[in-house]
Structures are given as structure tokens and as C-alpha cells.
Automatic annotation (TrEMBL):
Coiled coil: none annotated. Belongs to the CDC50/LEM3 family. InterPro entries: CDC50/LEM3_fam. Residues 1-33 are annotated as: Disordered. One of its GO terms (biological process) is phospholipid translocation. It is found in: Membrane. The chain crosses the membrane at residues 51-72, 358-385. This is Ligand-effect modulator 3 family. Residues 14-27 have a biased composition (Basic and acidic residues).
Length: 413
């Protein structure tokens, strides 16, 4: 009798355990609601021929419309670019000579109302004494005369352009010290251990400020503001088209990355390539530059992603640029022939999309054209080549009442 009682007790215990486990499972089960049990109605897109054709028609209209607008904006920009790489070697000595037309690129109105040929320019190279702080040095100055055949509405920007200069090289990109640029007097050991190497200190062990390859290779050609040689108003006080070259040429807030240095003058030396501007080092007459206020330097330190790039040098936001013949004087210091590069300057107006760039419009045209081709293909395929009657979407499984009721039945059971 005892064994039977023990077996019965075991069955009762097992039943109690099963009941407790089932109770625990029910306790953890989510509430039986449409949201928690994922039975809410959902919208199912049925790609009917009419819907496909409509979607591609709308996309084609949007992309082609934006492409036409962006192309229009690009063609409203007026610009003139002149390559002066070989000015010192090929320009006239003592007199102006024609500049080869293949070195000139221009985009102006085609209405026939131009006052001069933009593809005609002259250049000359002369020797001049250039003032650097408390001393002068003789330098090659390239004089370039060019035509602006129509009035340019402000804003007018002046860029320099470099070809084949790889600012995106991985070692070049890292060759600076952020704390030093911010104005901190970073000690020599920290500078020597930083990515500024090999331009961290000079042979005497003095710290280079600013250190690194990026600062040392800064573009150092200088450009005058364009001077109008044949002004329409002969009573004008000045024929110079003044352009600001240290205000408004960089992004707002970028100056927060830079500061006036806290080094003593005897602790630091200029980068090697700055020797012409700081022949005697940093002195009271030629103090180190205040990087927070030097926007041309800040522009240079914004590294370009491609080997061919523009950087803004100066601009005029208030006055239109009259048509006529202009002259720009260029102190040529930056030798691009050392690395098989080229250099140019660009004078341009801007639109709401910036300077002239036809590629956004072309890309929109390509995408819009693809949508239009697919749209035409679907129209011909669905309605002319292989027309067939569309099935009734009400017979789809998710539209059946039994499919919606099944989860409730399963939950009830």
C-alpha cells in the first residue's frame, strides 16, 4: 500500500509543478491586445501599374526640374580664371606681352553685348622692393592685365587655385599641434613627440611656431586688389576695386580654434618657408602672427579633400565691379613647378548655390533621365506591349476577414 501512496503523491507533486509553471507562463504573457499581440491593421502598398507610372513620373519631374534650376544658376555666374604659373619665366620683361589664350578660362554672357574679349590678357614680370616689417627685399612681381567684359554684380570673390597639391596626404593632414595653434605655450618635449615632426624645432632646438608641414607649406603669393585702367567715371577718386583679404573670407566660428601665442619671442622661430617674411625671426618689429585674426591662415589649415582646390583670398560684398580692363599685381613666392603643379587666380560672382558648378545640375538630369526612361518603359509595357487585367486586391490574404480573426481565435483557445 505504501508504494502506491508514494506514486500518487509523486503524481500530485508533478501536477502541482506543471500548474505552477503554467501559471508563471500566463503571468509573463503580454496582454491580449491588438497592439501587444501585433494584430493592428497595417497599410500594404500594392504596386499597380498606375501607381508605378505615377511615382516615376513625379520623380522625373522633380529631378529634371531641379536639374534645370541648378544648371540655370550655374550659368548666371560670371567668372574669369587666369593661370600665371609660368609668369616669371614666360612673361614680358620690361613690357607687356600677350598671355596665351589657353591659360584663360571665362564664362560671361553670350548675348553679344560684351565690351571686350575676356580671352585676351597681357602679362609682364618686374622686380620690385617688397616691404617685410622693418626691411625690404627684391621680389618678382607678375603684372596681369585682363578684361571684364560686363559689369559684375556683388558679391565678387577672388580665389587662388592650386593643381596637384595633395593636402589630403595622411601624414600631411596630421602635421600640426592643435594646442599650439590655440595659443598655448606647448613645451619642446611635447612638440618633439607630436605629429609636427620633422618640423618641430630648428637646428638650435628652438620650437617652430606654428609647427608642422601644413603651416610651413602655406600658399604665400600675394595679390593686390584689381585696378581699373579705363574707368567710365574719369572724376572718380580711385579706380581700385577694393577687396577685403582678412575679413569675411572664412567660416564663422573657425577663429575659435586659434589664438594669440603665449610663447616668448626668444623661444620660437618661424617655419623654414616663412623666412622671406621673417628674415630675422620673431622680433618686436616682426612679431609672430595672431592666428585668431589671420583668416588666410585659417583657410589654408582647412585641408582640401582633392589635389585640385580653390581657397578664398579676398572679396567685395558691397560694390559692383565695372566692366573694363583691370590689372592685378602678384608677388610670386610660391613655386608650384617643384612638384609639377599649377596655380591660377579666379574672379567670380556667386549665386545662391555658390560659385559656378555645373555638376549638381548634371547629376539631377541623369537621375531624372533614368526615371523618365523607366516611366516610358513601364507605360509601354503595361498598357501597350503586354496589357493584362489587374487582379482584385481584396482577395489578398491580409485583406481576408478570416486572416484577421484567426489570431483572436488562437488566443481564445
Amino acid at each position: 500500500m505504501a508504494p502506491r501512496l508514494r506514486r500518487g503523491a509523486a503524481r500530485d507533486a508533478a501536477a502541482q509543478d506543471d500548474h505552477a509553471e503554467e501559471t508563471e507562463t500566463l503571468k509573463n504573457r503580454p496582454p491580449n491586445t491588438a497592439f501587444r499581440q501585433q494584430r493592428m491593421r497595417a497599410w500594404q502598398c500594392v504596386l499597380t501599374p498606375k501607381l508605378i507610372v505615377t511615382v516615376f513620373s513625379i520623380l522625373a519631374a522633380i529631378y529634371l526640374g531641379f536639374g534645370a534650376y541648378l544648371t540655370y544658376l550655374a550659368h548666371t555666374v560670371r567668372d574669369l580664371s587666369i593661370d600665371y604659373t609660368d609668369c616669371v619665366r614666360d612673361a614680358g620683361k620690361g613690357k607687356f606681352e600677350p598671355l596665351p589664350s589657353n591659360l584663360i578660362k571665362a564664362h560671361f554672357s553670350t548675348s553679344g553685348n560684351l565690351t571686350a574679349d575676356p580671352y585676351k590678357a597681357d602679362w609682364q614680370v618686374v622686380k620690385r622692393e617688397i616691404l617685410y616689417g622693418n626691411y625690404t627685399a627684391e621680389r618678382n612681381v607678375c603684372l596681369v592685365r585682363f578684361n571684364i567684359p560686363e559689369d559684375l554684380k556683388h558679391t565678387v570673390n577672388f580665389y587662388y587655385y592650386l593643381e596637384n597639391f595633395y593636402q589630403n596626404h595622411r601624414r600631411y593632414v596630421a602635421s600640426f599641434n592643435a594646442k599650439q595653434l590655440l595659443g598655448d605655450a606647448v613645451d619642446g618635449a611635447t612638440i618633439n613627440a607630436s605629429t609636427c615632426d620633422p618640423l618641430a624645432h630648428n637646428d638650435q632646438g628652438k620650437i617652430i611656431y606654428p609647427c608642422g608641414v601644413v603651416a610651413n607649406s602655406m600658399f604665400n603669393d600675394t595679390f593686390s586688389s584689381p585696378v581699373l585702367l579705363n574707368p567710365r567715371n574719369t572724376n572718380a577718386n580711385s579706380s581700385e576695386y577694393l577687396m577685403a583679404n582678412n575679413t569675411g573670407i572664412t567660416w564663422s566660428g573657425l577663429e575659435d580654434l586659434y589664438g594669440k601665442t603665449k610663447y616668448n619671442y626668444d623661444q620660437i622661430v618661424p617655419p623654414p618657408n616663412w623666412h622671406e617674411a621673417y628674415k630675422y625671426g620673431y622680433t618686436n618689429d616682426t612679431p609672430p602672427p595672431n592666428l585668431r585674426e589671420w583668416q588666410a591662415f585659417q583657410n589654408w589649415m582647412m585641408l582640401a579633400a582633392s589635389p585640385n582646390f580653390y581657397k578664398l583670398y579676398q572679396r567685395n560684398d558691397t560694390a559692383d565691379m565695372q566692366s573694363g580692363t583691370y590689372q592685378v599685381d602678384i608677388v610670386s613666392n610660391f613655386d608650384t613647378t617643384l612638384y609639377n603643379g599649377r596655380k591660377s587666380f579666379l574672379i567670380t560672382t556667386i549665386s545662391s548655390m555658390g560659385s559656378r558648378n555645373i555638376w549638381p545640375g548634371i547629376i539631377f538630369f541623369i537621375v531624372g533621365g533614368i526615371c523618365l526612361i523607366l516611366d516610358i518603359y513601364f507605360i509601354l509595357s503595361f498598357f501597350l506591349w503586354k496589357p493584362r487585367k489587374l487582379g482584385d486586391p481584396s482577395y489578398l490574404s491580409w485583406n481576408q476577414p478570416s486572416a484577421a480573426a484567426a489570431p483572436n481565435t488562437a488566443a481564445a483557445s
